[in-house]
Please model this.
Amino acid sequence: MNLNFFKDFPELVLYGEMIGPDNLYISKDIYNVESVEFYIFDIREKNSGKPLKIYKKQKILEKYGFFHVRFFGEILLENVPREIEKIILELGEKEHEGVVIKDPEMVLSQLKYTSSQSNCSDLRHAFKFYNDTGRDYMLSRIVREGFQTVEWKENEEEFKKRCMWLGESILSPLRESIGGVKDGQRLYEEAKIRVRDLKTVKDFEDYLKRLGVDVIFEEPQVVEEEYLIKIKKINKSTNDKTQAILQGELW
Amino acid sequence: MNLNFFKDFPELVLYGEMIGPDNLYISKDIYNVESVEFYIFDIREKNSGKPLKIYKKQKILEKYGFFHVRFFGEILLENVPREIEKIILELGEKEHEGVVIKDPEMVLSQLKYTSSQSNCSDLRHAFKFYNDTGRDYMLSRIVREGFQTVEWKENEEEFKKRCMWLGESILSPLRESIGGVKDGQRLYEEAKIRVRDLKTVKDFEDYLKRLGVDVIFEEPQVVEEEYLIKIKKINKSTNDKTQAILQGELW
Model:
């Protein structure tokens, strides 16, 4: 990452996402990244928030050697539905999330379109911790499946397959979580962070505490001059709810 | 219905539900009722709300000839899980809703247990009007399916069947609603009421307006000295949401 960018363009701000197996917010292991890297998706003007046009953004990203999300190219408006369906089917097979469709001029608002595999993977995670995840988060992903089957004019065979995937993506994690709690287990998510300075761990722990997140930090392990720390995030609400229902309490 | 009850027991209150095809809140057509009848499930003391014990309640119901929900009898505590599973499987086949398990002394809180068919029927209705129905209503019915598969220790074949039912109960109505709006239809629920006096219709219309419900009342038809009025309830939120998404707006 060429930091001259910040000197050359003091009026611009990078919008991106930390991607890689060491980002505890992203469950999927997709880009060929060892720990985490900063992937840029937009460049915007300071204060106004006005985004650069796609063409200009791409030029800057290349010049400064920034990592950026995969660029599928410019597609003629009339070809978009067909081309996007093709791209999404391909991405879905690799369990990738989907695409963000952007106006080259960045005037029209952007549109995220996700693969069924990604929706179902979100749902598997959401229903594992069914009482911690937002209802709206679950519903929006379910409804996406409804729209996709209409948009793609699926036949009965394709539709039945989609029903089965959806049903399994919901019921499998529910069964696992309920069965787990019944057997006396505590439900948690595992994540890890890699830091150079142990103070960062302390800061992060404080930050999560302020957010009200219930976490257990394991002892740091030294990995290549860095510290790797495993974190268990206790999904208290789902644990408690499941326990309560199993003991006869009502929804 | 013997109205002497109210003279004989001025300190008691009947708790019940209007059941029959003419109750617009109950979609299922189960009891052998022509229009609506008042079915009693509890008798309680005025003010304190303290319920009568089951035995005493049953005696009063019989004496005064009240309609009451089906009574499956008293079941020994240790047999409850097995017996209820049997009853629920039977009720499910007939698309009936389920049971409410009550302590004969009415001290412990009661427990409603529903059939998978009833859960899925609720879900079919809920997802037809996915943006009008409460998120929590949907989630609780989905989670019930998760608990039931664990409670009944289902094998993989039974589990797959449940996944397929669940998936279809969610996706079929979604597909139908989204496809309908795409074809220019308006989504609505149909209901009907039967009244002796047309003033009741006016009162009911005012009541629904006060609740903020968007309804269209059709012209009254005369049926056996009564008026039958068909009502269309417009599910505005789902209509608008679906329209907006189809036109490119975001969730």
The longest helix of chain B spans residues 156-182. The interface with chain A takes residues 109, 111-112, 127, 130, 135-136, 138-140, 142-143, 145-147, 149-150, 159-160, 162-168, 170-172, 174-175, 177-179, 182, 245, 248, 250-251 of chain B (CB under 8 Å).
